[in-house]
Amino acid sequence: MKNITKACLLTVAMLPALVQSIAMGSALGPDAANIADILEPIRKEYKLPALAAVVVSKGKVIGLGAVGERKYKSGVSVTTNDRFHLGSCTKAMTATMIGMLVERGKLRWDMTLAEALPGLAMNDGYRLVTIRHLLAHRAGLPNASWPSGKTFMDMHKLPGNPRQQRLTYAKLMLNQKPQAKPGEKYVYSNAGFAIAGVIAEEATDTAWEELMRTMLFDPLGMKTAGFGAMGTQGKIDEPWQHKRGLFGQTRAIAPGRYSDNPPVIAPAGTVHCSMGDWAKFVILHLEKGSFAGRQLIKPETLAELRKPYFGGNYAGGWGVLDRSWGGGRVFSHSGSNNQNYAVVWMAPLKRYAVLVVTNQGGGSEAKALDKVAATLIRKFEP
Question: What SS3 state is found at 232?
């Protein structure tokens, strides 16, 4: 997972308008532009297997495109309905779900780890850490995603189901020495969002995956949303992930259990979905918690999520910045499991956003996606 950024094969034909409209529901504007011609030159320049983007304005998708291949040199084109990995852009989704639980009285922003996880042994330095600290990377947890002395595969092989694994993971992480006092220092930490997910699970007796589906994905009609690597083993039915090597070679990674980060840090970054479905989540934020005529979360809750209470420029799964094209305050995040890359720029004051993804990591993807975002912002800026 990475922190927020600043600002030659087959080109895919867009799906027929009727199919797109059904897939994207109320989010697709009637005159959405095909932006494939903007994406393809940048995809070629940066040697990306695939590249996709969506532009949102005033509650509608006004630009959409996907170019390239699902698997490098496979000849199988991506489509605008394909699922892409969002990496740490998942964090804003987890934080939004937490906000909904606060509204329902299940949690409080100032609820401490000692209150939320009373039966869990932890270092005393974490006992006064609050949910707000966790969602701002101010809990004193380490930047390293795995407990000291443990590996990626150790976390994949923890016993039990994902919820049980996450509880074990929380105990391992919280028994390490804090790097700072609560609120004192910004340390980007996947563990903080993972533990926030555990708190939600314990408060509701429901797995994080189910909370995400029932509270966010289903109400928003995000039918393509899921977790982990995209696609079916042995098939090229969704974009494969890719890794860029030291000498410029591109390696395709088949979907499978170990093709993504382990479920212990799922709340920090394992969601995948189509660009249209990701746009629905962003529209929820741009439209002050309203989607398709329903108020799913209060505007006040969204505003609370976006306040950097402890200084700096991070809050509730968003980087907080000021940009003239956005009319002032904008929110951004990028995400990568080092095999994909995603970035979102959201300007609530103008009800406008640009979202970009690729199915490759380990190279210059951040530069490529920033170039796409800047180009689309210039073209569609309201």
Answer: coil
Beta bridge partners of 69: 77
Domain range 93-209, its CATH number among 3.40.190.10, 3.40.710.10, 3.10.450.50, 3.40.640.10: 3.40.710.10
Beta strands in 95-240 (DSSP E): 226-227
CATH 3.40.710.10 in the chain is located at 17-86+225-380, 93-209
Long-range contacts of 11-16 (CB under 8 A, 24+ apart): 11/36, 11/40, 11/67, 11/68, 11/77, 12/36, 12/66, 12/67, 12/68, 12/77, 12/78, 12/79, 12/80, 13/77, 14/64, 14/65, 14/80, 15/79, 15/80, 15/81
Q: Is residue 343 classed as helix, strand or coil in its secondary structure?
A: strand
Q: What confidence category does residue 157 fall into, taking pLDDT thresholds of 50, 70 and 90?
A: very high
Q: Which two tokens stand for residue 218?
A: 């289903």
The secondary element (H helix, E strand) that includes residue 104 is none
Q: Is it the case that residue 212 has pLDDT exceeding 70?
A: yes
Residue 330 dihedral angles phi and psi, to the nearest 5°: -125, 165
Give the closest residue to 342 by CA, choosing from 90, 94, 87, 96.
87
Tokens for 313, please give them.
Answer: 């420029």
Distant-in-sequence, close-in-space partners of 64: CB < 8 Å, separation ≥ 6: 14, 20, 28, 32, 33, 34, 35, 53, 54, 55, 80, 275, 276
Q: What are phi and psi of 226, to 5 degrees?
A: -155, -165
Closest by CA position to 49, among listed 365, 344, 286: 365
SS3 363: coil
Q: Which fold has domain 17-86+225-380?
A: Beta-lactamase (3.40.710)
d(CA 84, CA 74): 17
pLDDT tens, position by position, 104-116: 999 999 999 999 9
pLDDT tens digits, 18-39:
334 334 444 666 678 999 999 9
CA angle 256, 213, 57 (to 5 degrees): 100
- Residues β-bridged to residue 294: 291
